[in-house]
Amino acid sequence: MDSDKANSGRLEADRNHSRSGFWETLRYDLRAVFDRDPAARSSLEVLLTYPGFHALFLHRLAHPIHRNGFRLFARILSAFSRWMTGIEIHPGATIGRGFFIDHGMGVVIGETTIIGSDVTLFQGVSLGGNGKDRGHKRHPTLGNHVLVGAGAKILGDIRIGDGVRVGANAVVLRSVPSNCTVVGIPGRVVRSLDAGYPEEFLNHQDMPDPYLERIESLERIISDLREELRFKKDPSGNRKEGGKE
After folding, report:
1. I need a surface site. Which of 28, 59, 170, 227 has the fewest CB within 10 A?
2. Which of 81, 76, 73, 60 is nearest to 18 (CA)?
3. Whether the model pTM is above 0.85
């Protein structure tokens, strides 16, 4: 069942890519850079200096070559891309429109990965596999409007729903429902989000920290207990000086 869903997701992504056309897809990818990176100043700057865009461009070339059976040539093109950009994308991976890799060094995307539209990855992200069975999907499926923070690892044939934010350095080993935030090792859902792709979606400073929230909660409890204990010792609310009445 999961394999059928994965195959349907791959076919849908490929159909969307074919309908939109190669150059139209690249124009959409280019617009995505300006939408999500305030440092981008011009199209020429992006075309010449953005390794994430270079890696995506070469993958857009290699993927149909791989799909049509010329796998060695596709792998050579992919290897050249990795050498040039520091980003490794297997030519078998299926990637939707508006994909953006920010900074990019150390990003790894495995062979059976499926990525939806308008997805953002930061440096050091791994979309890795589990197992060695060539006949089955081994890598994750990411929905639309997903953001994956720096250093995060998403491993195995799991699904990350639409509108999910994965915190930096998280390790996600289980499927995640749509419109939520995942942090920690192993990854845990800590907050539900509104559907869509708001501007503040990219604000990493707003990512929740469950450990900090628990510590702050414990500090509030301790403060309340101290106040209650002080009141029991002195119901009038007057402080006793020097421990004497």
Report:
1. 227
2. 60
3. no
